[in-house]
Amino acid sequence: GGVFRWCHGLKDWPDAGEWIDPSNTRVPDWLRPFNGEVLVAWDRDGRYAAGVGRKIHDRYGQEISVGTEAAHRGRGLARHLVAQAARRIAEEGAVATYLHRTDNPASARVAAVSGFPDEGWRVIGLPAAS
């Protein structure tokens, strides 16, 4: 299962990444399927460090997904990217949503400190038929 959250308050933290087209060759494979620009933070050598994809459901809602390379975890990069993405989504007139697995405490912390509190909404997934 998963936890479904939506943004309750925008964080005015410094930007941590740049918006680019998901087809850019520097974008990692996991960010390529998203249907809006993706937000990417690069390391000092110009390599991918962390990123946020936006799944644009309609003009009212956009779902945020975030991923950070292991070497860059624990530095607050994900929360800054999530907050930056939430601000852009709000500027576009939509609500930012965030979905994470119930067994992912790191993602839960990122969501909570970035303005996405846990309101008790859960998503139940069914396994694919074999």
Show the helix and strand layout.
Blueprint: E1 2-6, E2 18-20, E3 38-42, E4 48-56, E5 61-68, H1 77-91, E6 95-101, H2 105-113, E7 122-123
Parallel strand pairs: 5-6
Antiparallel strand pairs: 1-6, 1-7, 2-3, 3-4, 4-5
What characteristics describe this protein?
alpha+beta, 7 strands, single chain, 30% strand
Describe this structure in words.
By secondary structure, this protein is α+β, with helices and mostly antiparallel strands. It has helices at residues 77-91, 105-113, and strands spanning 2-6, 18-20, 38-42, 48-56, 61-68, 95-101, 122-123. It has a seven-stranded mixed beta sheet, with helices on one face. The longest helix is centred in the middle third of the chain and has 15 residues, at 77-91. The two termini are 19 Å apart. Strand 3 and strand 4 (48-56) form a beta hairpin. Helix content is 18%, strand content 30%.
The averaged pLDDT comes out at 95
Could you say which structural class the secondary elements and strand pairing correspond to?
A: alpha+beta
Rg estimate, integer Å: 14 Å
The N- and C-terminal alpha carbons lie at a distance of 19 Å
Order of helices and strands: EEEEEHEHE
Give a brief outline of the structure.
It contains two helices and seven strands, in the order βββββαβαβ. The chain has 130 residues and is α+β, with helices and mostly antiparallel strands.
